[in-house]
Amino acid sequence: MKYFVGVELGVKNILVGVVDKYGKLIRKESVPTLKERPYTEIVEDIAKLITEVLDKEDIDIRSVKYIGVGCPGTPDAKNGIIVRNYTLNFHNTPIRAELEKYINLPVYIENDANCAALAESVAGAAEDIDFSVTVRIGTGIGGGIIISNKVYSGFNYAGAELGHMVVSFDGLKCTCGRNGCWESYASATALMNQASEAAAKCPESLINKLVENDYGKLTENIIFEAARKGDITAKEVINKYLFYLSEGLVNIVNILQPEVIVIAGQIAKEGEYFLKPLKEMVNSKVYCQQVRQTGITLAQTGSAAVIIGAAMLGVYKNMALHSNVLI
């Protein structure tokens, strides 16, 4: 049997997993990234962790076909370089060439959100769907567009930055320098900021009790827990948040008309309580309601999404892995 190795190179941790040909995760391990050190040391740890994972599963390196690396930032997938990543302080960093010094296998590099989208297309909520968009909600909002199992990221591999479409003209300042970006209103970070601000103005809110008046403990799931228990403040926060989230989704539908939009991230664990009102908002605002509507569903690959998607990058290398046209 042939295997595939996926690497998630995160700000806090490096995760490595081995995946079978069906996209099933067999095993994963992690080590701290320690991002302040030189990239060469980080890549050396990736190589060591790959060897460790394979050894623990008694998999011969000769049975591995490809290695894929998913990383935040802007990749040059053709040349195996991370062009820009502020959080890891990467600038034109040759990840592929450095990793191939340790392991003699083809290495593919991709943005982590695109990897997550590919995972959902291959082995998740968008399996057997020809055209899907995955929206990954976390610290920011990442986007991945998949057409016929190919990642669409533009001619320069820097596209699909869905979190940076503007939904509020002259709105909140975004880390990118613009105002009113979608992720400033609809990321998990934005939701927690909105909830903290609202709860601080309402001392009797259940949110305050659940976090013991320490907003550093706040998570999106706590906000939904409070809402489920009838807390008015939490319900108002969620309703406002869903409005902003739906605005971006409507833009995606109106511009791209994908068959399915997959919502990924911790918030996806909230299930129908989160999804049902979101669908209703989106469907009420899309441009043409007389045609079959884009489906909106929740991710299925969970925390393994980037690993699985990265591992499967090489599988589609002969399918023009990056499509630069939408038709």
TrEMBL record:
Its EC number is 2.7.1.2. It comes from the Bacteria. PROSITE patterns: ROK. GO terms for molecular function: glucokinase activity. SUPFAM superfamilies: Actin-like ATPase domain. Keywords: Kinase, Transferase. It holds the Pfam family ROK. It is an enzyme of class 2 (transferase). Belongs to the ROK (NagC/XylR) family. This is Glucokinase.
